[in-house]
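dumping the sequnces here before i forget
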Amino acid sequence: MSVTIKDVAREAGVSVATVSRVLNGNSSVSESSAKLVRETVERLGYSPNFLGRNLRKRSTNVILVIMPNAEHSLYMKICVGMQTYGQKHGYDIITASSNATNAVESRHMNMVFNKTVDGVVLMGTSFDAQTLNRLADNYDIALCCEGVTGANVLTVTVDDEQAGYDAGIALLKKGHRKIGFIGVRSTALSATLRRNGFARALREYGLELDPAYLYENTYDDENGELAIERFMSLPEPPTAVFAVSDLLAMRALKKCVELGLTVGKDISIIGFDNISMCELTNPSLSTVEQPCLKMGELVARKLIENINSDTKDNKYYTVPHRVILRGSTGDK
Amino acid sequence: MSVTIKDVAREAGVSVATVSRVLNGNSSVSESSAKLVRETVERLGYSPNFLGRNLRKRSTNVILVIMPNAEHSLYMKICVGMQTYGQKHGYDIITASSNATNAVESRHMNMVFNKTVDGVVLMGTSFDAQTLNRLADNYDIALCCEGVTGANVLTVTVDDEQAGYDAGIALLKKGHRKIGFIGVRSTALSATLRRNGFARALREYGLELDPAYLYENTYDDENGELAIERFMSLPEPPTAVFAVSDLLAMRALKKCVELGLTVGKDISIIGFDNISMCELTNPSLSTVEQPCLKMGELVARKLIENINSDTKDNKYYTVPHRVILRGSTGDK
DNA sequence: GTGAAAGCGCTAACAC
DNA sequence: GTGTTAGCGCTTTCAC
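..and the predicted 3d for all of it:
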């Protein structure tokens, strides 16, 4: 049924080694044999079986990305960046989603253990530092978007603390002094770092992070709405809000509009990520951009370098973020 | 370095065949050997190499999904549905994006040819019917979301014509008679079918599809805005708009708001897909839901059945859609 | 119930 | 420049 290298060799009247050489193009083959082989490959519609090839080579040139939520366009954009780099260097990127559960994440990690893939990128993992370090000893793994304290593992993120600071400064510069913070309470570092940076910005203006202006729960966008409800019930509601994700911010924005507020005037909102949807809200949403393509390319490059080297680079890389002001933020 | 079945066999003092039998649990092995093997597997941290296993079994239990645009949450949601079914039946789902270009799609198809995956689902393909039929003869492939006329290939979509009809009727029932249509001009069937259904609804109310109310270009969301600009410059602008995708509809909605229109009152808008973002616009967006999870499960089930059978089911399946009315549609 | 051995399709070391 | 052959890790027949 399926045509193999043997069939090609027999048809072309050469050995399988010659066919293999032509296909891989590293060893020297006479032009006449090469031509003959290429023609035969074409004629039979032969495509090398990668299971055989990879088994022999002990590598697959495939990288797995495990993400908590495949419906979040941020992650998929990063994958596009990885693909861009991977394509140029002979690697395929495949994805799997863990629904942010450890059990599913572990299941997918089997693809690393059983050599289905050469390496894995974890976009926000449920593994702890100790586990990650143990894994990194034996396999090529990288973290992206979300670092883990104490994990001595290749990591690519934005500088979340600085990004939080920059978002805060952007609002402070617009004259806002009462600023609500919609965060996430979890083991995840990034949300905490963003809050820390935000608090640093406030301090620079002689302000403290008022607990009343602090709403922290999960990334579920419903919390954007709940936060606004809480903030607006205060005697002195904030005039601006910083949310650690665009989805939270969008839901907050929607709630504000429903409450009759003019966003960008009565209240300013800034999100985080710069998903494409930011430009489709009314008004469009200010945000802190994560350079997804750049992040994807960097993590792919570093991971592939690790795969092909015996000295692992387990450094922590940060990529530049960028505050983007749109209609949802205005002067106080 | 990597521990193999041989190591386990040696350590446990049994043959590799016995280890294999224990691992696969089909053949009969004495309880004592089985226990011994399991303990040794545990102790050595053994994980079977899938390349070896798959090479021998001539299958990988992996299905590839090729989608034109990985950032579209619709596709990812369908993948979640596929995963749900796949997980229960021992299949992994991996994804790749083609950026809607034939070259990239073809490149990814290599994973099918070289046996890296057992089958493939194409979410809107650039291959023509003839090519698809030829491929389907030799490989297990399925189309999802978007059928191809003349392709005798397993396909799962909503009934696009009926869905277009239902969307039209929903607006007509609200009293609208001047309805703009934002469509897509391409080889893709679905957009055309939706327009046909929409036209059928109009005819039922004694109306014709007015070319002035017809804007057809690409899925690029910018067209939502351009369409509204065109419609609103007409002497008699439409009082409602039906767009063949939520993204087009959202961009149209945004433009209407910018023009000072009250969406849901001055103008009604209905989209297509029911992506989660529909509830985050202001007002929230009416739409025609594609049952992503159901579609994913169905296409996974049918494709896996095909993979494991020698008689291929190449039928065209439709799944039920649903009109969801939200704030963006109101009475005329 | 268990082991020996063949072989899945391929690459690469070795011989010529 | 080319062919022969071992072997990647696994499953599965075939003996016993």
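The mean pLDDT of chain B is 94.
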